[in-house]
């Protein structure tokens, strides 16, 4: 039986990719390590350089994402308004521009994409840090200028620059983790799985350590020093990453080769041109109008349209074709299923940890649970590599999905377990005055809350330590002990153990996207995938807005599990279709 896998075809690109199973033939990484197998050669090889560059980039991203949220809260008087606006702008921009970013990645040489994305990201963060330092240092003077409108301008500049940095980071992630890695491993499935797993482990570790590091700097020194620390890190990281990526591009000649799509045209542009030319031929028969007259008429039509309108039409057409390309992919259901997993409250974000706080969990215990969750995520990457080698990639996704869903059943059980505050009667319109109040007659949990009858998930900012996507609290509120910890124990037991299957499934779908998407559409399809992820992530915030009280959290858990079940069902349908096609081909 041949070790070659199915070849992803791309209409008009003329490029055929072939993936080896696990042998070492034709892999640039193996060539760098085969003779001799010395540590020095490995340290100079593309694999290690990508790991170091990725680690620096992820560390900087995690520090910045944590710090910008804290800075915006501090600037606006311990209010979450600016943070909410920032989150909406970031998610909305990727949702709208994901296809355009991916198309830009496809249209340009790999070194240009990586270097320009890296430069824009780090320069944006650097300028934003400088603006924040000035605002923190001279806030009172700035508030007196233009009747306070200069402050609004500064807030706007900070949010725009942070959003630009996030867009550039998205482009860099698509380029390096979805394209470069595939080429560096020589289209070898085994080495591709290993690099994907290693990059995810680096991401898991930096997700915990980077916010803690910059948080300590901000706590022990000041916000101004914290901004300066991030500024310095980005400048150093920019230089090191630029050098390392340039070296990788030089020592892996395959990176300089892109699909022969008419030199400077993307696959999507060619499709648009074919459609427009077909439309012109159908409207103007050759017997009636000559080719020269057709070209002149086309130029006259373009001259009547303002350049900005023509450019806007082109961008909208690119977005439309990008989403169509995403829908045409063989792994469409798998990618869409992965996006559905983002609509959940069952993770270590501010929502779940805020709910845990209302149930009597202290900040120190939450930090320990975060660490255990990170270890579970690392175990998921190990499980992925083992299962992929033993069962195949598609079956690995099926097993990971089943494991993920099985662990989440513990979260469903927690909704009905002793100690759960869920009370469906608070949804009754007649009881609207009691919504959010846990001290009334509907209270099942004996743990009192501070702040009156409209107590949200998050308490006052003064008792909060902020970490990346997580809120930790100095001390649990004083009061009587909860009647039972069974519910909260089952909740976090399910969330933590589910991380193993979650990250294994994520890596399975990621590699399926890498293997099956043709090279000329790799950027735009992954850009649309990023847009889908952000769209589903926005839905989970809308869920919380519609049901914001602790009594509602059980409903959010059930709805989250339903979304996750739907996502895995989509993957099961894809797996069934893929296996059926494999049997038909053999």
TrEMBL record:
Superkingdom classification of source: Eukaryota
Sorted UniProt keywords: Ion transport, Membrane, Transmembrane, Transmembrane helix, Transport
UniProt key word Nucleotide-binding: no
Gene Ontology MF terms in the entry: iron ion transmembrane transporter activity
Location in or out of the cell: Membrane
CDD domains: MFS_SLC40A1_like
Bilayer topology term: Multi-pass membrane protein
Cellular component per GO, a single term: membrane
InterPro entries in the cross-refs: Ferroportin-1, MFS_trans_sf
Any matching Pfam family: FPN1
Region called Disordered, residue ranges: 268-287
Chief site of localization: membrane
Transmembrane segments: 41-60, 80-101, 113-136, 148-168, 331-357, 363-385, 397-417, 553-574
Function description: May be involved in iron transport and iron homeostasis.
Family recorded in the similarity comment: Belongs to the ferroportin (FP) (TC 2.A.100) family. SLC40A subfamily.
Protein name per UniProt: Solute carrier family 40 member
Organism, scientific name: Triplophysa rosa (Cave loach)
